[in-house]
């Protein structure tokens, strides 16, 4: 089946505003026993936490914790993080993915809370081998998860073109062998508004 023309941006790095279904984020949080209090790469329509960091050029600025997450020295600079709190990150899936994953690993150590990164499982890339093995765990999600179109795009949600994984970075680096946690999320939840 061919993707509709308005899906072209989702299959490239041209548009980074696609979101994930809240049910996917909730299932990951429940599996880990965490509460996501900060979303480190979001827009108003896609945030998965009460506080969020978005791009510096996105109006309106309402709700932003700071500027672009990649340029912030610390993601926790204006919030208090408690035991059981965590930071969520679903970075852009383009060339910036490597920088976001490296920053997430750093921020787990600096902010002293887990940072959970939802990304494509890209074991064919250099960034995967440079950073994924420093995660304490990989949550391997069975089946493809959905993308949700931003409100300003005339696009139908559909499933991701590649498998996804959540990398769990902890405040102390555990290089070597991440624990692999299989996670089965019901298709209707995994896909959000996508028809099965």
Number of strands: 9
Low-confidence stretches: 1-14, 60-66
Tell me the fraction of residues in β-strands, as a range.
Answer: 15-25%
Main sheet summary: 7 strands, mixed
Strand order of the largest sheet: 2-1-3-4-8-5-9
Structural class: alpha/beta
- Compute the number of helices: 4
Quote the distance from N terminus to C terminus. 15 Å
What is the CA-based Rg, rounded? 16 Å
Domain count: the total is 1
How would you describe this protein?
By secondary structure, this protein is an alpha/beta fold. It has one domain (5-191): Rossmann fold. Helices cover 19% and strands 20% of the residues. It has 4 helices and 9 strands, in the order H-E-E-E-H-E-H-E-E-E-E-E-H. A 7-stranded mixed beta sheet has the order 2-1-3-4-8-5-9, with helices on both faces. The protein has a two-stranded antiparallel sheet with strand order 6-7. Strand 3 (85-89), helix 2 and strand 4 (115-120) form a beta-alpha-beta unit. The longest helix has 15 residues, at 97-111.
Secondary structure blueprint with pairings:
Elements: H1 22-32, E1 35-39, E2 51-52, E3 85-89, H2 97-111, E4 115-120, H3 126-131, E5 137-142, E6 146-147, E7 158-159, E8 164-169, E9 179-184, H4 187-191
Parallel strand pairs: 1-2, 1-3, 3-4, 5-9
Antiparallel strand pairs: 4-8, 5-8, 6-7
